[in-house]
Structures are given as C-alpha cells and as structure tokens.
C-alpha cells in the first residue's frame, strides 16, 4: 500500500497496476517455462518510466539510481533496480507465479531443478 503523501495521480496509479500485471505475466511465463514476448515488451515499457541512470561514487562504486525526483518514477526505479539485480545474480528466471487455481502468488523457486510450478502453500497438494 502506498502512503497518501506519495502524491500519485490516477494515471500514475493505473500505470503501477499495469507494471504489476506485466510482472505477473512474465513470472507466469517463467513458471510455464515459456517465453511471452508481449508480457516482456509491456514490462520493458513500464520499467522505462523509472528513468534509470548509473551513478559513480568517489570510491568508484557504480550503481543504478533514478534520475527522477517525483514519487511515481522513483517507485518504478526501485522495481527496475530489483529486477536488474535479480537478473544479474541469475535469480530472475527463478521468480515465478504459482500455477494453483486462484493463487498466482509470486514465489522464488528454490528447487534444484528449477522446475517448481507452485508456491509453498500449494506445493504439497500435488
């Protein structure tokens, strides 16, 4: 839940919902072991609102940051940085969406085979 002082417009709130839905669709594709070009394109477009830049500190440490000052692009940037970090570590493909009926919960597949299709609440019901 966002704090009221986040100052999001209705269109920004709707864009965050589209971002959430595109993430869900990409995670569902991970679960099914398939590609979803439409979901990937929608996620790419939604994450662009984060307006990411590389920053370098005096010790030459490099990191991603948002170039924006407003709440909405900063929220998107936080998500984009998390996705980029998980992709860099190899974890992104293991984030999935539970395939159990009426669930859809995002989960991290810790199985050795990376073939889990359900969250821990539903995995035992197989």
Question: Which tags fit this structure?
Answer:
alpha+beta, two-stranded antiparallel ribbon, 4 helices, 45% helix, 126 residues, 13% strand
Question: Brief description of this entry?
Answer:
It is built from four helices and four strands, in the order ααββαββα. By secondary structure, the chain is α+β, with helices and mostly antiparallel strands. Helix 1 runs antiparallel to helix 2.
What does this structure look like?
There is one protein chain. With 126 residues, this protein is an alpha+beta fold. The protein is built from four helices and four strands; from the N terminus they run ααββαββα. It has helices spanning 10-32, 37-47, 71-89, 120-123, and strands spanning 52-56, 62-66, 95-97, 106-108. The strands form two sheets. The chain has a two-stranded antiparallel ribbon. Strands 3-4 form a two-stranded antiparallel ribbon. Helix 1 packs antiparallel against helix 2.
Overall pLDDT level: 91
Uncertain segments are none
Radius of gyration: 16 Å
Distance between the first and last residues' Cα: 33 Å
Strand line-up in the sheet with most strands? 1-2
Sum up the overall morphology in one term: globular
Order of helices and strands: HHEEHEEH
